[in-house]
């Protein structure tokens, strides 16, 4: 009992920045101590201020939440953890990222247990921001955070986190595992599907598929299934694996998802009856993957795609012909479809109800407004920034020890040729 | 290939073409104007194995009893002149006694031929072994050659092929090589192994001093046939139109001059553009000689060039039933005809900004609805740049707006580039930190 009090006192005393490392080593050693005094932790916690003594608070929280908790303990823990995550000091917790991750994970688990994923969203978001050295870093909490948003159906809440481009993976600072990355990509893709941003969803799923790997895992397979469906909706076909996909994935992935691949092949024939039939026969397979809704969207997208193809061929077409061409049930249904597409801005057309004719028009976008100029400007700036980043990464790699030692070994020793004296140019008489 | 003459047809020059009677012929019955194939004059264009093969083919596919029987009768006669007992039995089976007692299984003849053949084979083989022990190159070569000829005559094509190929090692002059190649080509065409045909044609081409124009022409024909089989119509057309007219009747154990005209003409129409058609076919004096033998093909090419599409398509329909009976062309007729029709449609719409579909339909002798469907298909494949006004039945040429297209492409490329670069940076980082998903207890 005394040792616990002593520890608390130390935490209080050493939480100034100078002694932080000392405190950290003390805390690491006192793990067992904390476990022994589990019942008294509540009291200890109340005497500490999470905003000042973050590191110690963290350790105590972690121990308190280990093992199964009762309903009341859960609530308690969740409340404490939420405040803690919101107010803790970044530098302090950065010393112990694994513990931090564990606490966050417990938060998620308890929220799930209490069936209130909503409660975990804000704390996890705060946690991400605290642990990230910059917004380009991925943390272990990204995946959990996105999962909570999905379960709570609060897609908008996740946008601020999702929109950050992730470039940096630093295992030491964030305690990350490859699985977290894959889950991040998978959940991120799902959220984008929920927001109907299919293009971004494809990006995320593609990250999951092309991540370096030596074995195939279930997350990649699930991501690929969704990838196939979303790319059918967005692009009309499934793109081939890019060159940099790990060979293990390239060889084995297709055989695990045969249903989806077959669906893709039948989609390309643009025959609605076939696709519909296929989906009904394999309904169970899709349902078990929770992809039935997506599959239905695939059918809707096929109608749209067929109608769009008609705009390429015809200037005017009767509603009856459209219905026949696209295998709809009649001119009325064709009219409804086209109306919807005009409203969504997917085609440009006018319906003449007197004749039952639809006349297709060109995209009125002339690309000559100031808004367009500004958009082009913005894109150019983005790309220049990206290019700068690329050069800086390139420079970093060129200065890297390992790289240089490898290069140095392979290069022959003809160094004089590397110095290109000013090439002799033709001099004019002027 | 001889097309049966219609009323407008006069005498056809070249090997034995005569105007035949008229009858609905053709496996595949197109319902076009009936043209009967005159089996006798057709068969007289050929000799050797191809004659029998073509007669059998006609018998199998022509669906008309009298033609079938006529073909089988001629095949029977021809086979009896040779030594191929296997083919004899086949022919008799097909006849099935319908031609009377004179055309039945003549077991005596079979036995006699078999005996003779066995003797000859033994003799050739012993001779060959003798030559081999003596190691005289020329004799060994001739020995194998003779053995190859023997097997060929017996209808044992596989053995013949092997023997001819073996002579290769003993060839000393380019003449030997040429004759070896030609033999192999002959056997391969009959076997249907057109890959070998192309190989040996190129081998023969590479032989130094190939001067004899007849040989060159033969090789070109063989190459053309090989391309035709592999559906490379443009290359086939080039070979056929380049064939020297001196070929004459020297290759009638494979192909007749009329065939060169037909194959070359059709493939050219299906695959050449206007410039090439004019320079290589219409202005080609050499090929004109071939076309004289098949005036219909000549007329149809000229019609096409002069945009008289209705008449051109009419000639094609007339020729179709007989073409379907040609052993090399029958499975390509539909594709070639389709391609020619498409080319005609595209060529018709090319010079106009707007085209009235009614006029076009009458020019092509088809219905407006059918025409619209065909045009829609061509537009979707991007062969015609136009749009159809289905309400007023007009086709409007459409030229893509370059400026808009460029802007769209630019924006698209920009976003693609950004996406790819970000993915690349991410992956580079993953690999730098060795962030690889490794095997282990499955986590889910």
Automatic annotation (TrEMBL), chain A:
Belongs to the CSN3 family. Keywords: Cytoplasm, Nucleus, Signalosome. Pfam families: COP9_hel_rpt (PF22788), PCI (PF01399). Transmembrane segments: none annotated. Residues 197-365 form the PCI domain. Coiled coil: none annotated. It comes from the Eukaryota. It is found in: Cytoplasm; Nucleus. InterPro entries: COP9_N, CSN3, PCI_dom, WH_DNA-bd_sf. SUPFAM superfamilies: Winged helix' DNA-binding domain. This is COP9 signalosome complex subunit 3.
UniProtKB/TrEMBL annotation, chain B:
The keyword Transferase does not apply. It comes from the Eukaryota. Its main location: cytoplasm. Pfam families: CSN1_C (PF21151), PCI (PF01399), RPN7 (PF10602). InterPro entries: CSN1_C, PCI_dom, Rpn7/CSN1, Rpn7_N, WH_DNA-bd_sf. Residues 1-23 are annotated as: Disordered. This is PCI domain-containing protein. It comes from Sphagnum jensenii.
């Amino acid at each position: 009992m005394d040792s616990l009090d002593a520890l608390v006192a130390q935490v209080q005393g050493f939480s100034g920045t100078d002694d932080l490392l000392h405190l950290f080593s003390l805390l690491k050693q006192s793990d067992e101590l904390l476990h022994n005094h589990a019942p008294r932790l509540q009291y200890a916690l109340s005497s500490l201020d999470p905003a000042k003594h973050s590191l110690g608070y963290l350790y105590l929280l972690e121990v308190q939440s280990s093992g199964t908790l009762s309903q009341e303990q859960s609530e308690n823990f969740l409340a404490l953890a939420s405040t803690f995550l919101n107010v803790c000091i970044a530098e302090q917790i950065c010393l112990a990222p694994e513990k931090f991750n564990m606490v966050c994970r417990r938060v998620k688990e308890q929220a799930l247990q209490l069936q209130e994923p909503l409660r975990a969203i804000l704390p996890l978001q705060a946690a991400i921001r605290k642990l990230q050295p910059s917004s380009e870093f991925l943390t272990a909490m990204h995946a959990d955070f996105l999962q909570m948003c999905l379960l709570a159906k609060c897609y908008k809440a996740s946008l601020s986190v999702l929109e950050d481009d992730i470039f940096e993976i630093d295992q030491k600072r964030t305690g990350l595992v490859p699985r977290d990355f894959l889950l991040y990509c998978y959940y991120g893709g799902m959220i984008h599907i929920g927001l109907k941003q299919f293009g971004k969803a494809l990006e995320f799923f593609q990250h999951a598929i092309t991540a370096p790997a030596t074995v195939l895992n279930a997350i990649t397979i699930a991501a690929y299934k969704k990838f196939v469906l979303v790319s059918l909706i967005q692009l009309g076909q499934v793109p081939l694996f890019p060159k940099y996909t790990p060979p293990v994935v390239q060889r084995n992935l297709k055989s695990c998802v045969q249903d989806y691949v077959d669906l893709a092949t039948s989609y390309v024939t643009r025959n609605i009856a076939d696709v519909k039939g296929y989906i009904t026969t394999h309904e169970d397979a899709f349902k078990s993957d929770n992809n039935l809704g997506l599959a239905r969207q695939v059918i809707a997208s096929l109608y749209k795609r067929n109608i769009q193809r008609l705009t390429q061929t015809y200037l005017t077409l009767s509603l009856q012909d459209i219905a026949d061409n696209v295998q709809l049930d009649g001119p009325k249904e064709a009219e409804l479809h086209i109306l919807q597409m005009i409203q969504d801005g997917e085609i440009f057309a006018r319906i003449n109800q007197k004749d039952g004719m639809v006349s297709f028009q060109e995209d009125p976008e002339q690309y000559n407004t100031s808004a367009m100029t500004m958009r082009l400007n913005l894109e150019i700036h983005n790309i220049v920034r990206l290019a700068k980043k690329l050069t800086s990464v390139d420079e970093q790699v060129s200065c890297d020890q390992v790289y240089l030692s490898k290069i140095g070994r392979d290069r022959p020793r003809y160094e004089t040729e590397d110095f290109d004296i000013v090439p002799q140019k033709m001099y004019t008489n002027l | 290939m001889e097309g049966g003459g219609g009323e407008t047809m006069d005498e056809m020059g070249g090997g034995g073409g005569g105007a035949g009677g008229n009858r609905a012929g053709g496996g595949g019955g197109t319902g076009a104007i009936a043209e009967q194939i005159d089996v006798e004059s057709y068969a007289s264009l050929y000799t050797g194995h191809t004659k029998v093969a073509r007669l059998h083919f006609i018998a199998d596919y022509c669906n008309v009893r009298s033609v079938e029987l006529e073909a089988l009768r001629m095949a029977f006669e021809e086979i009896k002149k040779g030594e191929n007992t296997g083919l004899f039995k086949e022919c008799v089976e097909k006849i099935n006694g319908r031609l009377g007692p004179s055309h039945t299984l003549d077991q005596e003849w079979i036995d006699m031929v078999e005996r003779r053949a066995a003797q000859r084979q033994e003799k050739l083989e012993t001779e060959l072994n003798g030559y081999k022990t003596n190691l005289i190159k020329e004799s060994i070569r001739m020995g194998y050659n003779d053995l190859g000829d023997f097997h060929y005559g017996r209808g044992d094509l596989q053995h013949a092929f092997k023997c001819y190929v073996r002579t290769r090692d003993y060839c000393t002059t380019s003449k030997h090589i040429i004759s070896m190649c030609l033999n192999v080509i002959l056997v391969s065409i009959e076997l249907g192994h057109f890959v070998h045909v192309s190989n040996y044609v190129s081998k023969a081409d590479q032989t130094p001093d190939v001067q004899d124009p007849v040989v060159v022409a033969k090789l070109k024909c063989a190459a053309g046939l090989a391309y035709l089989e592999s559906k490379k119509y443009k290359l086939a057309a080039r070979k056929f139109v380049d064939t020297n007219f001196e070929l004459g009747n020297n290759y009638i154990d494979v192909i007749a001059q009329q065939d060169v005209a037909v194959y070359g003409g059709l493939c050219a129409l299906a695959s050449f553009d206007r410039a090439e058609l004019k320079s290589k076919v219409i202005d080609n004096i050499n090929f004109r000689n071939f076309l004289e033998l098949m005036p219909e093909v000549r007329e149809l090419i000229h019609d096409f060039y002069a945009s008289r599409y209705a008449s051109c398509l009419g000639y094609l329909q007339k020729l179709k039933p007989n073409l379907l009976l040609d052993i090399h062309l029958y499975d390509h007729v539909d594709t070639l005809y389709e391609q020619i029709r498409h080319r005609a449609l595209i060529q018709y719409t090319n010079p106009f900004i707007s085209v009235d579909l009614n006029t076009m339909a009458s020019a092509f002798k088809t219905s407006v609805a059918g025409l619209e469907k065909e045009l829609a298909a061509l537009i979707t494949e991007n062969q015609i740049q136009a749009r159809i006004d289905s309400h007023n039945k007009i086709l409007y040429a459409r030229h893509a707006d370059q400026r808009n297209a460029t802007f769209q492409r630019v924006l698209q490329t920009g976003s693609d580039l950004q996406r790819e670069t970000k993915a690349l940076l991410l992956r580079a980082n993953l690999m730098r930190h060795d962030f690889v998903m490794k095997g282990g207890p499955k986590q889910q």
